[in-house]
Amino acid sequence: MKLQVKRKRLFKKLNKKGEGYTIDMPYKITHMEGLKMKVEKMPDKSKMGYRLMDLEQVDCFLADVTRHVCICPGALNLALKGMRPTTPLTEINSFGLASTIGVLCQGCNQMIKHDTSKRLNCLHSKKYDVNVRAVWGSMVTGNGCDHLNELFGTLNSPGLRQGTFTTIEEEISEMWRSVLEEEMLAAGEEERRLAIQNNEYHQGVPYITVIADGGWSKRSHKHTYNASGGVAIIIGKRTGKILYIGIRNKYCYICSTQSEPAEHKCFKNWTQSSQAMESDIIVEGFKKAEEVHGVRYLKLIADGDSSVYAKIHEEVPIWGKYVTKIECSNHACKCLRSNLEKLVNDNPIYKGQNKLSKPTRVRLVSAVRCAIRMRSQENSPMSARKIAHDIRNSIHHIFGNHEKCSDFCKAKSTITPETNDGNASVGENMDEENLFDDQYAFWTEGSSISAQEQSRLHSPNTHYTSLDKQMLADVSVLLNRLASKSDRLIGNNTTNAAEAWMHIRSKFDGGKFNNLCNRGSWHARCYGAAARQNLGTKWATTVWESSTKTSPGYFFIEMYNKRDKDYENTKKSVKRPDHQKKRWQKKMKGWSESTSKKARREYGPNSTEVCDDLDITTLEQLKEEYLKLHIEISNDKLDQIEKQTVQQSASQVWKSERKKRLTASNYGKIVRRNPKLKVTPLVKDLLYSNFKGNRCTVKGLQEERNTIHEYILKKAELGHNVTVEPVGLIVNRQHKFLAASPDGKVKDSNGDIGLIEIKNLLQNKNISFMQATKTVKDFCLVEKNGVLSLKKNHLYYYQCQGLVNVTGLPWIDFVVRSLSPYQIHIERIYSDKDLWNEIMLPKLTAFYHQVLLSELAAPRYNKVPGIREPGIWVGIIDFTNIAFNIPSFIMIHYQ
Fold first, then answer.
1. Distance of CA 151 to CAs 51, 143, 146, 159, 521, Å?
2. What predicted TM-score, i.e. pTM, was given to this entire model?
3. Tens-digit pLDDT profile for residues 538-562
4. Domain range for residue 259?
5. Which residues in the chain show pLDDT less than 50?
6. What domain count does the chain have?
């Protein structure tokens, strides 16, 4: 660069003598002759870094430089002298990601410059190609200007100004919108052609079935419906393409920040509530259907989350009242699942085994979904009535009562009257793998029914008549509500196409995490997602070529070709038989892991916390209050508890009341406990165990009624006519912290009354009881002189002694039964008062009041430092304030 300026304006003295003149940056003096001089602009070295350069433009630039050097005499002369003919490459101007680069010829001082990117020359944009591509890429990945500049700043490259980004974004929006409008018209024409082909007319106008749904620009979390933007679409069912899209925006940045805004393109087009956006857009689309596409939307597939259907009837003229709504089957089942979860949360008594547990709710919803699918395949005039029947009957079906099941219920056809005893088949004790297999089959065409019926074989049984009648009634209310929509569920239609588009749109808007409603960004992202829906996976290259009239480029095309191949491969893999199974296994396993007690202790409201313990005085006060409130209650209340808990493990009252006390099944653990061990593991086992059964306990529950029947027959052979009555939780009247749950109360015809305790053994080896006494470690029976009897130091013996002493009955028949091979052992055990009063009762009393009661009154579980460890107890315990039938002071050694 040559400049001629006055010396006094450019130079400054470096010393007092006036020697050594220089010039400020970014210029330098290259030649001086008297008052004449040459000044060149120096490149700014601080702005060096990486640049995006079009190789074609670089090639043209190098060709221009080479051509100039070859014809410039000065440059040739310098080259012959071995000197550089041009100055180093420098960036003259920067336009976002595009730049103007140049070199200065040392021979003639001519600047040779070139742009690193071409400019577009199309209807919608004249911007540099690289800048448009950068903004395009940011939009389709859900990012904005800040994200783009973050990326290029890290690469040490210049980014885009927000104003430039916004301008280009609006231009791209127009590209996408114009292409989308053409595609929607083409989709409407195809839908109209198919309607005419199928002779579907309403008042002389072709009619079609559409799918409609809407969404917002931010997450609502089911309680805050205040998004600034909303979008809704109408999709033709046959083509699966969008016929109409409407966008609403409640905010404009310029209008909100300026009192008197200049003329601008305002995207604010909505002033009402965010909830009303969806219905307004869809009604608007219905009104334009006949005008734009020449069809009527006479059947609407939608969910039930908005007032769309009602407004269509009210506001669409002429044919709106004839529109019929078809329920989305998936959404109906989803609402049922949510209502079941709410029912359980509102009624905690419905939780647990043989009630509305998580597996039970999954099976109930799956049974309803399966019934809708099966009946929709029949295409019969009675399908709606059959669907309603199957939905109402599903609660009885999953609990094992198949009397009113439909013809496709395999359990009804395989269970004979002899084997069908009305047992329920749903619980929490089933193996996880069986649950995975069942659920895979539930959602797989062809095998869903067989797997649904097979699930009953892997679950503990409970007599159907013993189920909570109020629970069945509450669930029936929910099922009746769904059954009333049976005529809308015919056809097994879903809004999956609309839900899939909402998923696509979430990629464009950054998963609803970014606020895109200030200007036109929200509109642009919705247009792009709609173009993706109608044009398929290669939509971007098609729209680029159509809008800019230029080639998308090799890498642009290659990326979408690869994506299209991946999509086709994914569709093939989904059809593989094991794909859905693995997917469901992953989902159910993740649920199991995330809801475990260990996981909940890591994070959330149940996470482990550090908490200082209470002082002795406060703790003793809390223990006394707990005893008065929960333990020392009236005998009438105890009688009521016994009646309410006859179902035992199927009763929520039984579960809650027994945790407040020590029960007979745990007496042996406490009496035989090693005094050197800590009490924490035992307290966790008594109060916080998550054990829900295994194959042994499942088999034991299934065979209990059969064992009682055989016990009665055996007694009859010996001349005793006995009956067995079910009993609930029996609380000792003197020591109300002790309780027991016998398997039944035995009444002999001679007036003798006792108890029965049943142990159904599941053996891995086919051996007899006599052989087991010699080979099986910790076997409950012992052989002496050829006679089998219960070991006096076995846990079962302490349980039997606890049962008779708590209930006050003189004897208990201990029954052991096995099926491999079949054998039964019946032994009468009488109450041992010395064992009870001298050993068992003192240890149980000490453990309850010194260990368990402290944890019940002031829990330390899941807190740091944890459950209280009393250590070695050697001393005198005062029981004078407690109504125990033992001396006032006794010496106890307990750890």
1. 13, 11, 9, 9, 20
2. 0.69
3. 999 999 999 999 999 999 999 999 9
4. 165-328+494-552
5. 1-25, 415-463, 872-895
6. 4
